[in-house]
User: Which sequence fits this backbone?
């Protein structure tokens, strides 16, 4: 595999190694925690645990969002401040489905004489705090300020 963006965190890999070790021992094959870490490393396409650990350690830090967290950014070109009211980690990816409630409704229509206000928005964002979906001018639909 060896795609760092799809790898679990170090803590998640250590938990997997513990479960692997318990399963192997239950089936009559005692193994050490170190060996189970090495086996997991091979499954993910790395030479050994040290190589996998180094690859994970060199990943850019992920933006962590929690329910109740205050955020600000831009949605469809409009500045917003609001609160995170839902976060769901999407399986096998570095993406999250996040639901925000804005303090003040945002007008998402740019045409004069027409308005459409949104106060609650759900979108899929990456660990960089931007949506994969783009506006017609190529900018992310939503991006969070750091």
Assistant:
């Amino acid at each position: 595999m060896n795609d760092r963006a799809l790898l679990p965190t170090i803590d998640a890999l250590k938990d997997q190694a513990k479960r692997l070790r318990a399963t192997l021992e239950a089936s009559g094959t005692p193994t050490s925690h170190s060996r189970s870490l090495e086996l997991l490393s091979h499954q993910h396409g790395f030479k050994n645990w040290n190589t996998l650990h180094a690859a994970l350690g060199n990943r850019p830090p992920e933006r962590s969002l929690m329910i109740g967290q205050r955020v600000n950014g831009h949605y469809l070109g409009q500045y917003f401040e609001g609160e995170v009211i839902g976060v769901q980690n999407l399986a096998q990816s570095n993406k999250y489905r996040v639901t925000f409630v804005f303090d003040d409704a945002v007008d998402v229509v740019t045409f004069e004489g027409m308005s459409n206000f949104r106060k609650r928005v759900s979108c899929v964002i990456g660990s960089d705090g931007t949506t994969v979906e783009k506006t017609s001018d190529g900018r992310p639909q939503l991006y969070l300020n750091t």
